[in-house]
């Protein structure tokens, strides 16, 4: 009887020991999971901050490029205004400056200043902060980006061909998407100019692929060397001198399309050049 009671006590002690061990293991696991979760959240927050910094740096670089575009776009109208003023002076000295002739000259100046004002308005709209996601047209976003660079493309005698099969609305931060398109257009322009392409072209296609909204921008700039394909979307990677490029652009464009808009940005060589393609989910409320 005594031996049985002792044996029962041993079983109870063993049971309690196992229970305590399991409890300790569970508590340790919970504590470890909490520490792990905290560390993961910390790492995620750091990555988000790095992403924000990268986008901000890319935006500053894009602002610098856009200011250069505006300076270029203003060069011709300023020269024309100077010519009109010279004509007014000449007409005045020759005593030909009647009311009708003066009005013609002033109307010409007014037309040129309206054009310059529109350029600034496009730039100002691009810079306005807006982090809210919205439904917007792919063509409208492309038009906004193209308005900032078309004069520069024109001055480089780069032919732009558009094919709009069908426009779609997508969800995202529109100004970020405009920035991504601007990066790709500038990249194509730089390649065409740097490679001295005889008849430079940029082709734009908007339509639908695999039931997704699709934007394609291609050029005839000679394509991307195979050894650069793995690096082209890396942060800080650039083939330009540091004074001319930061290496943020394409990395930031991919981040906007894939992380912010949950789409896909791809690049491949086709025929005479490179093709950048963007796939995005269509707005379900369209």
From TrEMBL:
Report the EC number(s), separated by commas if there are several. 2.7.13.3
Q: Which UniProt keywords apply?
A: ATP-binding, Kinase, Membrane, Nucleotide-binding, Phosphoprotein, Transferase, Transmembrane, Transmembrane helix, Two-component regulatory system
Where do the Histidine kinase domain residues begin and end?
69-284
One Pfam entry name: HATPase_c
Keyword match Thylakoid: no
Q: What's the superkingdom here? A: Bacteria
Q: Does the keyword RNA-binding apply?
A: no
Q: Which GO terms describe its molecular function?
A: ATP binding; phosphorelay sensor kinase activity
Give TM regions.
Answer: 12-32
Q: Which reaction does it catalyse?
A: ATP + protein L-histidine = ADP + protein N-phospho-L-histidine
Q: What is this protein called?
A: histidine kinase
């Amino acid at each position: 009887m005594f031996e049985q009671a002792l044996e029962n006590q041993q079983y109870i002690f063993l049971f309690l020991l196992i229970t305590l061990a399991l409890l300790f293991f569970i508590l340790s696991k919970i504590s470890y999971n909490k520490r792990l979760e905290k560390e993961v959240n910390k790492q995620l927050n750091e990555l988000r901050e790095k992403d924000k910094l990268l986008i901000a740096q890319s935006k500053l670089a894009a602002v610098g490029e856009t200011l250069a575009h505006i300076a270029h776009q203003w060069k011709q109208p300023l020269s024309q205004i100077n010519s009109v003023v010279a004509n007014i002076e000449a007409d005045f000295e020759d005593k030909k400056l009647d009311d009708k002739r003066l009005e013609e000259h002033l109307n010409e100046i007014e037309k040129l200043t309206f054009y310059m004002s529109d350029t600034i308005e496009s730039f100002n709209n691009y810079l306005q902060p807006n982090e809210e996601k919205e439904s917007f047209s792919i063509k409208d976003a492309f038009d906004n980006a193209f308005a900032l660079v078309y004069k520069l493309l024109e001055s480089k005698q780069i032919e732009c061909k558009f094919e709009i099969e069908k426009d779609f609305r997508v969800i995202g931060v529109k100004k970020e998407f405009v920035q991504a398109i601007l990066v790709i257009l500038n990249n194509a322009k730089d390649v065409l100019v740097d490679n001295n392409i005889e008849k430079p072209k940029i082709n734009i296609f908007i339509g639908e692929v695999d039931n997704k909204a699709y934007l394609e921008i291609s050029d005839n700039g000679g394509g991307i060397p195979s050894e650069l394909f793995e690096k082209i979307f890396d942060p800080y990677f650039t083939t330009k001198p540091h004074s001319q490029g930061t290496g943020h652009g394409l990395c930031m464009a991919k981040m906007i399309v894939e992380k912010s808009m949950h789409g896909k940005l791809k690049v491949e060589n086709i025929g005479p050049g490179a093709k950048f393609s963007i796939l995005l989910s269509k707005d379900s409320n369209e």
